[in-house]
Amino acid sequence: xxxxxxQPKYYPRSIAFFLACSASIASAQxxxxxxxxxIVSFSSGTGEIYPITHFPSTHFLVDHEVCGASAKAGxxxxxxxxxxxxxxxxxxxxVSGAELFFSFMRGSSRCPTSWCSHTGIDEPNTVxxxxxxxxxxxxxxxxxxxxxxxxxxxxxxTKMYIGAAPLxxxxxxxxxxxxxxxxxxxxxxxxxxxxxxxxCHSWDTSLGLGYFSWKWGSEASDGMxxxxxxxxxxxxxxxxxxxADGLNTVRLVSMDPDTHDLVFTKLDMPTLALTx
Length: 276
Prior knowledge:
Distance between the termini: 33 Å
Strand order of the largest sheet: 3-2-1-16-10-14-13-12
Radius of gyration: 18 Å
Largest sheet: 8 strands, mixed
């Protein structure tokens, strides 16, 4: 529940930008873009974005054990792993490497009463966008809204559109959506969640497009995981923020393919709204 009445900021021009890649920038070899180390290039001129392939030192699994397993900083993200959505209780299930990195759980010291991700790369009042690539080469898109910290005093809400026609019919689905109670509408009309103010997702797997809506309270967060993203030549994905409250920054997270250090690029949301 939100602890104040929200008046979402509907920007005069929506926050829209593209994530794109082609064989020409991905690799000197003739390979599908998503099989190369550099998967996307951000169109604003910030340079190439590399997927997260290894656990950073800030990840929950580096300092904690879940389902009898933990990780060391620098360990490669496996194709599959074991995870549970309730800390210390419930059944352990096999999840994809992307879900293991997203580490969605309730009941931890980080999120004692609500679900949240435990990537260690979220930030208050910020949208975090990243790609994760597991040991098998499978790639997924992760989005984190805000952070479950004391700095997040008012919560927030946001609505976005994702258009990625090359993903149509390639089996890309919403792997994880925060909150779990959100309406699962992967198989409904993609516009189902276009005009709601609650947690909702309506992704059309056949068309590769959909709307996503989130609403979260103080000391909480929301987000999602979309994948797998199949190999595609000259791939382009549009992420358009239609409204945002409680969020004022976009943070693109990349991983140096040689050192495995995280690289952060920050963009101001109102500035993007005026220039795109």
